[in-house]
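User: My instructor asked us to take a sequence, write out its structure as C-alpha cells, and then describe one feature of it. I'm not sure where to start. Here is the sequence I was given:
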Amino acid sequence: MPRFTFEAMDGQGRTVKDEVEAVTQEEAISRIRRLGYFPTNIREKADRAAARRVTAPGKKKAMAFGGVSGKQLTLFTRQLATLQDAGLPILRSVRVLQEQMKPSVLKNYLIDVADDIEAGSTFSEALARHPRAFDKLYVNMVRAGEAGGVLDQVLSRLADFREKAARLKRRVMGAMIYPICVLVFATLIVAFVMIYIIPQFKDIFDEFEIELPGITKGLIAVATFVKTYWWLVFLVIPGSVFIAIKLIGLTKPGRYMIDMTKLRFPLLGTIIRKASIGRFTRTLGTLLASGVPILEALNIVRDASGNVIVANAIGRVHDSIREGESMAEPLAQSKICEAMVVNMVEVGEETGELDRMLVRVADSYDEDVDAAVNGLVALMEPLLIIGVAVVGGTIVISLFMPLIQLMNQLGE
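Assistant: Let's start with the prediction itself. The C-alpha cells for your sequence are:
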C-alpha cells in the first residue's frame, strides 16, 4: 500500500510530521483528520512517485534560458482559473496551456508538472518541485484550494493578487522614470564638462599665468581627478559601495541595520513602510481567504516580507496567536502598523472577517503608496532643478571669474 508523508497542526497549533498508509491521497487526508490533526502538507513518498513517473509521449522540452517572468506566471494563473471554472480536469488544463505556450522555461516546468500529476502527484506537490517559478505563497494557496475543493476560486484570487501587486509596482516605477532620467542626463553633462571642457580652460589660464581664485582652483582639481580616475569615480566607488552593502546585508545585525535605515529614511522610509504593510496585509488576507491556516499563513508572509523589522513583528504575531492570544495586540506593540490597521484587524477578529479587513487595509495602503510616490516625485523635480542650477552656476562662475581677469589684462 502506498505511504504518504505529511505535515499537520495539532490542537495546540504545533507542527506534526509523520507517515500514513492509504490507497489514495483523499483517504490519507481522512485518516490524518481522524487522528485529530489538520493536514497542511501531504505527499506520496518520493521513491514510489518517481518510479511511477513516465514522460508523456511527444512532450519534449525546448531549449530555454532565464527565469519565469511575473507577467507570464500571472497570465498562466488567470487562464488556468478559467479552465478550472469551466470544469476541465487539472491535468487536461495544464496540458492545454502548456501546448499553446511558446518555448520558455515555464513551458518546460509545466511539462514536468503535467507528468507528475499523471504519475499520481497532486497539483500542489508538482508545483512545489519547481520553487524558482512557484513560490511558497503560490504552492500553499493551491494546496488549500485542493483541500477545500475550490481550486478555481483560489487560482482566480491568486491571479487578482498578482495583478494588483504588479499594477502597484508599475505605477511606482513609472513615477520614478522622469527624475531618474533627469539625474542621469545631468550627471552625464557634468561629467562631459569636467573631462573635456574644463581642461581646455585650464590650458588657457596656464598659458597666460593668471592667478586663479580658490573656487576655480577647486573646480580644476576636481576636473583633473575625474579625468584621470574616471574609472574610479564611475565604476570602482559605486561598485564597492554596492558590494559592501550586500556583504553587510548577509549578517543578521547588518540586515537589521539596513532595513531599519530604510524605514527611518526621510520621505522614502514612509513609502517603504507603507508598501511593506500593504504587501503583508494583502498576502495574509489572500491566504486566509483561500483557506490556509493562520499560523501557516503567517509563516509564509514572514518569509516573504522582504524586511527584517516587519518580519520580526509578524513573528511576534505568530507567537501570540499560537499561545491563544489576539493578533491586534502584538501588532500595536510593534509600532510598525498605524492605529487604523490595528483597529481594522481587531474588528476583523471580532466579526470573523479578518481576511476581508486585511484586503481593505491593503487597498487603502496601496492608494497611500501611490499618493506618497507622486508627492515624492513632485518634490524631487524642483530639487533636481535647483541642484542642476547650483552645479551649473558654480561651474560658470568658477570659469568666468578668471576669464574677466584675463580680459582686463588684455585690455591693459
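For the description part of your assignment, you could build on this observation: Residues 62 and 102 are 9 Å apart (CA to CA). Try explaining in your own words what that tells you about the chain.
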